[in-house]
Amino acid sequence: MTKPSDTTLSYLAIGSASFYLPLTFWASNAWDIGNPTFILLYGTGVSLVGMAAFWLLSKTRARDLSAALSISLSLMVLMSWQRLPLRQTVLSLLLLAATVFIVVRVGPSIQRGIAAAIVLLFGVAAVAQVTISHALEAAEIPLLALTAREPADATEVIEDVLVVVVDSYPSLAWANQRFGHDTSFIELSLEDAGFTTPAVGWSQHSNTSFSVSALMEMKPIVDAASDDPWSNSRNLGSIIGGENLVASTLRSAGFQQIQIESGWHLGQCSRTDVCIEASWLNETTWSLLEPSVIGGWLEAEYGSWIVPASKSVEARLHELRPVFGNGEHDYVFAHVMLPHGPYVVDSTCNTVPPHTNGNTVPDSAIRSQLSCTDLVLSRIIEVTNETTAVLITSDHGVKSTGQLQKSPDSWTKEDIADAFTILLSYRLPESCDPPGYNTNTIVMSAIVECATTFDAPFNDGDLLIGLRHHSWIGPLSQREIELGLASGRSMGEVNG
Ligand SMILES: [Zn+2]
What we know:
By secondary structure, the protein is of the alpha/beta class. The chain has helices at residues 6-28, 37-58, 64-79, 89-103, 108-136, 172-179, 184-192, 208-217, 234-240, 245-252, 283-289, 295-302, 306-319, 363-380, 413-420, 440-451, 477-487, and strands at residues 160-166, 201-202, 256-260, 274-276, 330-335, 388-394, 421-422, 424-427. The site of zinc ion (ZN) has 6 residues, from loops.
């Protein structure tokens, strides 16, 4: 077998160094990344920069491998700049210079050895990791049988449907009671626009991927949720991305389905008539670019990917204003990643530095996020008109994971309120049957049942499913908790 030439080995080393971080990121998120385009583009872009530098250096007297090894090391340092133990720029640069100084001085055979190690450890191994993780994690989260998709007719009571999901917004009663959030602005904004806003709304799942899927299927989609909510959730991504009961029913009744991507990895369009893409700065691009040498600038400019992603969703909704009330049936779905950690916006949605209180988030940081979300929602409801049925709902409570992984013996009502009580607000024409219970899946059903001849699957809205089996929570607890919450404050001020 002929040995690769120094030049071939050089290009392979530069390529391996460039693709290592993108590929290992893809491997650790195997099936959840529905579209690896950016991952591959990022690796290719960095490779091209490295190879251009190599070509330039080869015009000088630099030996092939000395140049290639220096470039490979530099690329890896620049791509993981923010994760290096030495954050100070000067020390990092000195360390890089010292390493390069040594590498270019060792003999040709040692250089070939280092280059081969880079190709094996960072190139071949990363490709193997991507392959193995996809093979190991091929099994999807097992779902309960989904309700059959049956065609329905429009009733002509509702012209358009808008569903806006916010993320981690607690019920208004709990937002006030627990965080001291002044809910009067959002209550008045919603009331003025004709919305009904119960003081306590409920989600049936405590985690985003399950909860948004359940909303779109109008019933819980698992009865024993995975302990690991981040295992392969391709099937949930498909439901969330538009292949779901709400969309198929409304589409069969002549509604145009318009899906706005959230920037979250499971928020990509699957089946829809119109897909409106997320901001370029989304969860995947952020995860790759934030550790790099431009990460500090990204953080200062945007705080977190959720900020540009949320602003982009809001802007797209405003651009959709003409579809509401244009005489055609339209169904618009949007997921705004607010109020969501990291808590890096102030109450007017400007980027602020992250709080520096260790792991505990100060109440004031959460209040700022809630106020920003209130502002965004108050502007979003203006794009609709009275012929639009609107559902505004959080996906889950203020804490989506954590406390429901502990033994049920130690649960408090507060734990359940944290996980399951949500902001819920809706506007339905008066001739529609009001929802029977303040659970977001039930309100979703009420909208689809009023807009079409569809009969929703049985769901009394009482089943709360944490990260484990629903029997952990018990079917009666939510009404008890609601009474408990209600007695904690004056509920008379809350609409509904
Ligand atoms: Zn969520």
